[in-house]
Known about the structure:
The longest helix is centred in the first third of the chain and has 15 residues, at 23-37. Helix 4 (113-125) packs parallel to helix 5 and helix 5 (139-148) crosses helix 7 (173-186). This protein is 39% helix and 13% strand. It is of the alpha/beta class. The chain has helices spanning 12-19, 23-37, 81-93, 113-125, 139-148, 161-167, 173-186, 202-213, 243-256, 273-281, 301-311, 324-335; strands spanning 42-52, 98-103, 129-133, 152-154, 189-191, 194-196, 221-226, 261-264, 286-288, 314-315. The structure holds S-adenosylmethionine, 6-(5-methyl-2-OXO-imidazolidin-4-yl)-hexanoic acid and iron/sulfur cluster (SF4). The site of iron/sulfur cluster has 9 residues, from loops.
Amino acid sequence: MTDLTIRHNWSFNEVNDLFNQPLNDLLFMAQSTHRQNFNPNEVQVSTLLSIKTGACKEDCKYCPQSAHYNTGLQKERLIEVQKVIDEAKEAQAAGATRFCMGAAWSNPKDRDLPIIHEMINEVKNMGLETCMTLGMLTKDQAAGLKDAGLDYYNHNLDTSPEYYGEIITTRTYQDRLDTLEHVRDAGMKVCAGGIVGLGEGQKDRIGLLMQLANLPAHPESVPINMLVKVEGTPLENIDDLESFEFIRTIAVARIIMPKSYVRLSAGRTSMNEQMQSMCFFAGANSIFYGEKLLTTDNPETNTDMMLFKKLGITPEKRQDFSDEAQQSALLHAIESHQDSKLFYDATQPRV
Ligand code: SAM
Ligand code: DTB
Ligand code: SF4
């Protein structure tokens, strides 16, 4: 029986042993842990929107939005609140239950916060969960976001402390840990994960997972991003990460953070259905849903709905769900794919 104790004292050797056991043993352990904590056939769906795009002063080597690299990206200032409302409505109609707003900032300026608070308020009033990712936060800024009604704050550790300096030089690992502390202390739910495929070693993937699990509280949401290689960034030609290494990363995250939502995050457009389904089997139970991430492509919503159908997965309802209209929109989005010619019926030959 898998040990379900929530632990914050994982050692490198313990996580290394989990990571490197035979794949079938690892997947069995991860799936068993998953079933003890979640409905294995439900996946939480969040939609992302970039509310301020490009011209970021940080030098994150993976990022198309850094001003340090020329990626040909169309920059955009902080968008209007009405645009956020329109996009959130569309996401809700398509079945999303959480709306995540991301800004290409190192940290938000206090003068931008009234508009940010208004965005949170409007999206929350629609019955969607709210999430933001705006860079580093002070204690007061975190408290202000919480007061405005923000449910989740996303801030990633990205990689291990040892590899971090190869990827970002303009802010430290400790800066990131401090922001996570401010978010947690303000009483918001923490969304913190990282990216793999940055040219790091397996020891760095283990180091990242150890850091996340050994935080004072496990993040409620753990996004695992596969690097999206963008032309113009220093990592555009980096070697692909081996698929099984990615699946193992998800499985270990599931085992050592048994009650956290593990998000199969960026990078799904380069994964086939079988790869994604192995990630769900390994314990991933959240995705970004909608045709765009922040600036790069994500699978089409139809494609995702069809994949869910084939796998017998349903989008998770909000736990505190109270809005019948939202629920029926979600069911409608799934049902409409049942009539589609492309809908896979296991009793019929594939078309
Ligand atoms: N600027 C804020 C920050 O960095 O904290 C928020 C937005 S930033 C784009 C959010 C996260 O997206 C990063 O921490 C990184 O993990 C992920 N990300 C950025 N570019 C990516 C890429 N090319 N592939 C995969 N993940 C990426
Ligand atoms: C996270 O961990 N991944 C999302 C979200 N948090 C903000 C962002 C992925 C960005 C991928 C590159 C882009 O679209 O610009
Ligand atoms: Fe800026 Fe965030 Fe991109 Fe880093 S990841 S360059 S902080 S937008």
